[in-house]
Structure formats: structure tokens, C-alpha cells
């Protein structure tokens, strides 16, 4: 959504490398490649997105926490 469908995620990787990268998230040895922050994406929202990808469930934000963040972020934009 924030990329406005202008480019394909992981466009510089082959299909095989994208699949291998998905495995790196599971192995969690620091070799995974994250999507870069789109120019139009606020840093705080990008950090929230990264925290959602954490392997450990206790490190991921809860749905109420995500909801609060988005409400607060939206209020700060007005």
C-alpha cells in the first residue's frame, strides 16, 4: 500500500532467493533481508512493521498495540 504498487517486493532477488530469504527468517541467524522503507512510509510505521516480523511472538506487538499505534499516528497527522 505504501509503495503504491510501483515496484515488486524483493525485485532484485530471484524467486529462489526470495524463498531462501523466507527460510532465513525462520532460522533467525541474522542473514534475512528485510524490505526497505518506502519513501512515503514514516519511520515509526516502518519500525512497527519490522517488529511484526519478529520471530519471537512475545517481541511482536499485539493487535490492540498496533491499533493504538495506528490511532495515535493518525491523530498526529491531523
TrEMBL record:
UniProt keyword annotations, A-Z: ATP-binding, Nucleotide-binding
Residues annotated as signal peptide: none
Superkingdom of origin organism: Eukaryota
Record flagged with keyword Glycosyltransferase: no
Serine-threonine/tyrosine-protein kinase catalytic domain mapped to chain residues: 6-70
GO biological process, one term: positive regulation of phosphatidylinositol 3-kinase/protein kinase B signal transduction
Cellular component GO terms, alphabetical: plasma membrane; receptor complex
Single GO molecular function: ATP binding
Record keyword ATP-binding present: yes
Protein name, UniProt field: DDR1 protein
Source organism (scientific name): Atractosteus spatula (Alligator gar)
Amino acid at each position: 500500500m505504501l509503495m503504491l504498487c510501483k515496484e515488486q517486493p524483493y525485485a532484485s532477488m530471484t524467486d529462489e532467493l526470495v524463498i531462501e530469504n523466507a527460510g532465513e527468517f525462520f532460522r533467525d541467524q541474522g542473514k534475512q533481508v528485510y524490505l526497505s522503507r518506502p519513501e512515503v512510509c514514516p519511520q515509526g510505521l516502518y519500525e512497527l512493521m519490522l517488529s511484526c516480523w519478529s520471530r519471537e511472538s512475545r517481541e511482536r506487538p499485539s493487535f490492540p498495540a498496533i491499533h493504538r499505534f495506528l490511532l495515535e499516528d493518525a491523530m498526529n497527522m491531523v
